[in-house]
Amino acid sequence: MKLQVVGCSHHTSSVAVRERLAFDKVQARDALKAFSDRFPAASGVILSTCNRVELYSACETVDKAPTHQELVDFLAGFHGLKPLEIFSELFERTGEDAVRHLFAVAAGLDSMVIGEAQILAQVKQAHHLAREVDQIGPLDLVFQNALRVAKRIATETAIQQGRLSIPSVAVSEFARSVFESFADKVTLVIGAGEMAEETLIYLQQEGVQDLRVVNRNLERAEDLAKRFNGLACPWERLDELLVECDLVVTATGAAQPIVTVDRFRRIEAERRERPIFVLDLAVPRDFEPRIGQLQNVYLYSIDDLKQVCEENRRQREKEWPKAERILEEETRKFVHELHRRETGSTIQRFKSQAAETKQRELERLLAKLERLDDDAKAEIGKAFDRLVNKILHPPLQSLKEEAESGTPHTLLAALRRLFQIKD
Amino acid sequence: MLTGISIVCFFTSYAVSLLLEISRLFFRAPVRYVVSLGFAGIGVLLQGVYFANRFLIRAGGEAADVVPPGLGSWYDWCLAAAWFVAAAYLVLAIRDPQKNFGLFLLPIALLLLAIGWAVRSGTSFSAQTVSWGTIHGLMLLAGTVVVVFGFAAGAMYLVQSYRLKQGIRTQRGLRLPSLERLHRAIEPTFFISTALFGLGLLSGMAHSLAKYGAIRWGDPVVWTSSALFLWLFAASAIGLLYRPAREGRKVAYVVVASFLFLFLEVTLAVLSGHGSEQPAGEDLRSNGPRTAASDPVEATFDAIAEKPR
């Protein structure tokens, strides 16, 4: 079997190139159909994410498999590009390297953020799509194993543990330790910038439903609130909203703190000491730091969270050798198994062909030697078996030895040709 | 049934489980959870069997006429409280394997077992006052268990709150429930423990009146129990009337204080032999002090232990 991958990733090409080669779901489906028409003997899977576009192909018969150039032509042609425009931007991996690459991608080891778990879902989707359009073929086994290896790495190492972005750390490490559920909490967003928006994505994933957005510019607040099913409120209602809410995300561009200790003390008295979680993502800060010293206030600034992000990054790096060991072990095991399967089917056919010939010749001989008793016939049968086994043993042994270091394509081809073994 | 079980068996089981819980703070080991849970489960089971053995012997054996079934002594009382705490840990650990409940509950179970062990040769409770005495003992036992749960949740709350305030990560090493969940666990313990200690106090008074014809206000256990009840009652009432009093860390401080109060009371009760047939220093209507050697239950156990197998 010829297994290969051609593609580009954040390691090899710029965003501009990746954008031009990217596939959405519909395009990927069409491309797989086109791939099937152009290379009927091969199967393919397209993995397209923000950071990579990869075309995996596998073909049982080596001489019918698409070449590197043909795969580049296919990718370029589908997007209406000239192959030369993208050739130098694409990488190619074949055989064991292709398997290792896919395993690493699925486990998040090749990702921009090492260990990110989102890629696993994207690999799954690519796998499912190829199955849907009946283009998976022998790649099914490779992808199934890639998913298994990714899960193993996630379980046996801490490479996926600890978030790396500031909003995700704030939510997963701290907010979740204050509140059991976000569904019944009032969340207040002060400011309507990118940081606030990014944090809201995580908060909504955690179940935030009751959302209020307050901003000096009400239009921008309305825009953000609309996108997250929230309620935009005028700036004048800030104190009132701070009394009502349980969780605050603030990220304004104000030059001075918008909530001082004295202002918050008044608010706290009205809150009747209910705990409040404040995520101050603004620089300079929107909440005076001394507010964090009040008893039931849990206040976090960007600096507090940056430290945790860095710590998580270092922790993931520490886990890298362990993950790599698993990756190597699994790749070796899988490739060995692949070789065994490939040679296994030829060996099986070779053996059954020899057995059929033996059986035919034995029956012909025994028909001529009718006078022989059953014991003599059985002895002849055993002799034939021994003879066939002894003739088959040396070529099979050679095949087995060759398969230890890779698929013995030449030997298999020679065997098929010499003994006219048919599929 | 399994008469060779001793307090050492389940004490060791809980201790091993606690050590495994402590080790969770330092390194990852996938099988540890199962082993830790296994030890705690075996401990709870062994303690249950041990307790059943003592109960059966009392109920049907030669001791039946001398000692009431169930909580026959401070030794039994401490063991029962420890069993409830350990069983609660087991349930919580099964429901939420990620959290380190054991660090807060198992030491209390071990402490109760240690106290029980220290007073194992103390005198038994009086057999003539099964009804009021038993109710009194059971109510105080249940109240104690509830206060212990409140304390564990309160301690967890304070630790978690401190870590959050200091910006210490909460998803690595020590893992605790969220503040909201802990707060929800703490709140009802006030009202339940107040009710239980109130009933315990009333039944204790009834027991005292029935037995001695008067309430023994001179007994330090009586006034510390009354003080504990008043403290719990006041905390519950203030919490009901003034919401901020039961918000955040305040409520956690109150349950921790309740536990310290309770610890003082139990220590006093155990040391003074409260509820025993003849508490130290008092001339009562009983037939004189009974030591471990003369205690029929212990004697029966000793006899079983000495039987050749």
List keywords for this structure.
heterodimer; A: 423 residues; alpha/beta; 4-stranded antiparallel beta sheet; elongated; B: 309 residues; mainly alpha; disordered C terminus
Which structural class matches the secondary elements of chain B?
A: mainly alpha
User: Biggest sheet of chain A, strands in spatial order?
Assistant: 7-6-5-8-9-10
Mass-distribution shape of chain A: elongated
- Give the terminus-to-terminus CA distance of chain B: 13 Å
Tally of DSSP helical segments of chain A: 15
Radius of gyration of chain B (Å): 21 Å
* Quaternary form: heterodimer
List the helices and strands and how they pair.
The complex is a heterodimer of chains A (423) and B (309).
Chain A: E1 2-9, H1 15-21, H2 25-38, E2 42-48, E3 52-59, H3 68-78, H4 83-87, E4 91-94, H5 95-106, H6 118-132, H7 139-156, H8 166-178, E5 186-190, H9 194-205, E6 210-214, H10 218-227, E7 231-233, H11 238-244, E8 247-250, H12 261-271, E9 276-280, E10 297-301, H13 302-368, H14 374-403, H15 409-418
Parallel strand pairs in A: 5-6, 5-8, 6-7, 8-9, 9-10
Antiparallel strand pairs in A: 1-3, 1-4, 2-3
Helix pairs in contact in A: 5-7, 5-13, 6-7, 7-13, 8-9, 8-13, 11-12, 13-14
Chain B: H1 7-23, H2 32-60, H3 74-95, H4 102-118, H5 130-166, H6 179-212, H7 220-241, H8 248-272, H9 296-306
Helix pairs in contact in B: 1-2, 1-4, 2-3, 3-4, 3-5, 5-6, 5-8, 6-7, 6-8, 7-8
